[in-house]
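Appendix B. Extra example for self-study. Work through it before the problem class; the solution is given directly after the inputs so you can check yourself.
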Amino acid sequence: MDNQFQAFDPRCKFGSKFFPSPIFTASGCAGSGKELSQFFDLDELGAVVTKSISVKPRSGRATPRMAETPSGMLNSIGLQGPGIDQFLAEDIPWLISNNARVIVSISGETIDEYASLARKLRGVSGISGIEVNISCPNVENRGMVFACDPVASKSVVESVRRNVGGELPIIVKLSPDVTDIVSIAGEVINAGADGLALINTLLGMAIDIDAMRPKLAGKTGGLSGPAIRPVAVRAIYQVHAAFRNIPILGMGGVASGRDALELIMAGASAISIGTANFGDPTSVVRIKKELVDLLKERKFSSVAAAVGVAHEK
Amino acid sequence: MSLINKRAEQRNAEIISNKKVGAYHHMVFAAGDMAAYCRPGNFVAISVGGTGSSMILRRAFAIYRASDRGQYGGTIELVVAPHGQGSRWLTSLEIHDVVNIVGPLGTSFGIPTEPAAALLVGGGYGSAPLFGLAEVLKERGCRVDMVLGASSAGKIYAPLEGKRSVNSLTITTEDGGAGIKGRVTQVLPGLIDKHGSEIIYSCGPMGMLAAINEISSSLGLLHQCAVEEAMACGIGICMTCVIPVKDSSGVIKMTRSCIDGPVMDGAKVIWDSSRKVPQGTWGFNG
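Solution. Structure tokens for the complete assembly:
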């Protein structure tokens, strides 16, 4: 570690897969990959985590879909997307041909839909993992957010594990809007998750006091950005304390290398960048450099060496 | 590389001029090579609030003019309405201050291949991109007539140099403080008839664009409009700025106004769709 000629190791690992960079994009915050590729090469990333894809095409919700809030924003997209078949035919081949590593995020309304999505992904060559999004707040029926129910969470993950088979790592994305995130994490780990993605957005709302109605057409939306970072740090810290060997893809308001390091010290093995991409299209490149510089300054020889260090003090 | 955002870059730009004009600020930025790729209708997205600001999203501004050579190299000019916290911060900046700009973004106005009679319609600061458009149309031998409307005289942006590139300029104000009392749509049918307009270009509030589209579609005229919808990123990744638009096969899709707009074919837009997704939209899920 003291040898200045020893190369810094930026890798992270989920399941059987190594990723060469600890900085990923967050689901729903990188478009199809094409939009950001004008600003940097996608192989700079550990992986592109795709928008959450559903069985059938979805129009998403009406507009306004966005409201800026202090150090954050509310969104109410409603999982707009082309459906899995078109996505596999168009988006995935483009990403792979542009040297991006790809984690496909999936979202279903029923356990059968998750199973069906997993079957479609089985055997797709070139993808590096699956993110099971069981925590999108912008679904029609909040009661259907699987991540709020330990039994439903477990059933979804078991079904995906069974249908995707073999080697592909499964990362399960959880909601911070629960009473006990550690117990939900425990259920999905028992069901076969290789890693956890923490955290999804928090459910929020803003009202236009002149129009006297909710700012978003969908009334409620997911709160993201630096405003939620302390919630992410708390959730990651709690889950890492309980499950030291399960890698966490940490996210929630990371906008700098300092922020990324904070989540890593809480227990994240890698970091996804979401809302920061909107305000700064080259943020992932900047954050990666800042993070590596900070780790080197602190004499860490790898990203892995810093994971969870805040638990030791 | 992708075709999306294909001319866009992110750079710092120094402010070289900031003047209050009526209700607006005319601002000039030294933008280097970015200026060479700007077309009428394109926009830029600017970070606001400075380091550590609680305003995390960029603000989008239609480009008023762009010039790729001059005393300061390439320059981009904007007309900024200090309506919100972000635009007030921007207009409060001084000469030599530096802002971070992403651009040029979005689609530009289509230019007729043969000379045609064009009517340009702007609402409030929506007039900004129309002057650059008028210059391009003039160079192509088009007849260019312009109508600008606003609630009051101070909100009409019509600089002298802009007026030179149009054959006629009509002003309407809702309070009657300048020009004809009323709205642009009241004078539109008469002007189309008088000037033999064949294509309408518009920029302004969505309600105005919808009303213009009713007139253009009833007369069978082409209508190119620059739409606006609340936008978080400006580069096609956040999916917030969508509006329902018919694609080439007639299927209505929620379409990003940042990369498939802001300039769209008015006949393809499903108007009056704020706060609801039209029935029949591809993948309709309410």
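Self-check: The CA atoms of residues 21 and 157 of chain B lie 8 Å apart. If your reasoning did not lead you there, revisit section 3.
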